[in-house]
Specification:
This protein is an all-alpha fold. The protein has one domain. The chain has four helices and no strands. It is elongated.
């Protein structure tokens, strides 16, 4: 293997599948902690965005 190929491979970001394996259990835990209420769209948002959205919805009445 050429040295440039070795170092390029070593510094490359993880693939999407590798990232999914790391984030998958964390997202499932978040979903279960929220009593399986929120779907995929809401679980991807940070907690501050969820709080702002729910407060705005409640204030509209």
């Amino acid at each position: 293997m050429a040295p440039s190929t070795y170092y390029d491979t070593k510094t490359r970001a993880p693939s999407a599948r590798a990232a999914d394996e790391v984030l998958g259990p964390a997202l499932v835990a978040l979903w279960e902690d929220n009593y399986r209420v929120y779907g995929r769209a809401s679980c991807g948002k940070p907690p501050a965005a969820l709080a702002t959205t729910s407060a705005a919805t409640r204030s509209r009445g």
